[in-house]
């Protein structure tokens, strides 16, 4: 079986696409203005893809170790209501979310970029990382994107999920 068809088998049952934010939806940089306000850069193709994915019936959720009002704002713009910020133990948060949404690991795709994401990456039905993710995380993922975090990597995975659902 080719690697593409293995991905299709893993992607077909996906009902939830769970994402880390910094380094996945953004380039991972933390920018501050002179006045101390935080800034983040999000890629419009990623956003459009996440809207398309939700219209196709897949729930999108954000799971991040930091808190930012900008993340809340971006989620609201994209119609994402499942937002978990300031999460110290992503594995525990994942287990609670999975139970609450009544989903199995097989129905969940996760995209992360660094060591705090490993526990979830190892459990889900499909795991993906941006091209510039930490090496230890790239070795564990089912799929390593061609694009970097904040530069269309999320859209790359969205397109794979949508293609598998056809």
Short description:
The chain is α/β, with parallel strands linked by helices and 166 residues long. The chain has helices spanning 3-11, 44-55, 69-78, 90-101, 118-121, 135-140, 153-165; strands at 16-19, 31-32, 38-39, 59-63, 82-84, 108-111, 126-129, 143-144. Helices cover 40% and strands 16% of the residues.
Features:
166 residues, alpha/beta, Rossmann fold, 6-stranded parallel beta sheet, two-stranded antiparallel sheet, 7 helices, 8 strands
Layout of SSEs?
Elements lengths: L2 H9 L4 E4 L11 E2 L5 E2 L4 H12 L3 E5 L5 H10 L3 E3 L5 H12 L6 E4 L6 H4 L4 E4 L5 H6 L2 E2 L8 H13 L1
Helix pairs in contact: 1-7, 2-7
Outline the structure in words.
It is built from seven helices and eight strands. With 166 residues, it is of the alpha/beta class. The protein has one domain: Rossmann fold. Helix 1 crosses helix 7 and helix 2 packs parallel to helix 7. The two termini are 19 Å apart. The model has no long low-confidence stretch (mean pLDDT 94).
Q: List the quaternary state of the chains.
A: single chain
Rg, nearest Å:
15 Å
Mean pLDDT across residues: 94
Order of helices and strands: HEEEHEHEHEHEHEH
For the largest beta-sheet, the strand count, sense and barrel status come to: 6 strands, parallel
Share in β-strands: 15-25%
CATH class: Alpha Beta
- Regions with little confidence, pLDDT below 50 for 5+ residues: none
The number of distinct structural domains comes to 1
Which range best describes the helical content: under 10%, 10-25%, 25-40%, 40-55%, 55-70% or over 70%?
Answer: 25-40%
CATH architecture: 3-Layer(aba) Sandwich
Strand order of the largest sheet: 5-4-1-6-7-8
Shape: globular
The CATH topology annotation reads as Rossmann fold
With helices defined by DSSP (H or I, 4 residues minimum), what is the helix count? Answer: 7
N-C termini distance: 19 Å
Please tally the β strands and state the result.
8
Query: What structural category arises from helix and sheet content?
Result: alpha/beta
């Amino acid at each position: 079986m080719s690697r593409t068809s293995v991905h299709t088998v893993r992607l077909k049952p996906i009902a939830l696409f769970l994402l880390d934010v910094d380094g996945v939806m953004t380039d991972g940089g933390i920018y501050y203005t002179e006045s101390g306000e935080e800034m983040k850069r999000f890629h419009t193709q990623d956003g459009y893809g996440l809207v398309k994915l939700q219209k196709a019936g897949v729930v999108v959720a954000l799971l991040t170790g930091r808190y930012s009002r900008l993340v809340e704002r971006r989620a609201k713009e994209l119609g994402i209501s499942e937002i978990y910020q300031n999460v110290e133990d992503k594995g525990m948060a994942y287990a609670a979310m999975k139970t609450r949404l009544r989903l199995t690991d097989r129905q969940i795709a996760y995209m992360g970029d660094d060591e705090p994401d490993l526990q979830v990456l190892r459990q889900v039905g499909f795991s993906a990382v941006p091209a510039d993710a930490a090496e230890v995380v790239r070795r564990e993922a089912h799929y390593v994107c061609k694009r970097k975090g904040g530069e269309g990597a999320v859209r790359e995975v969205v397109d794979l999920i949508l293609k598998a659902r056809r």
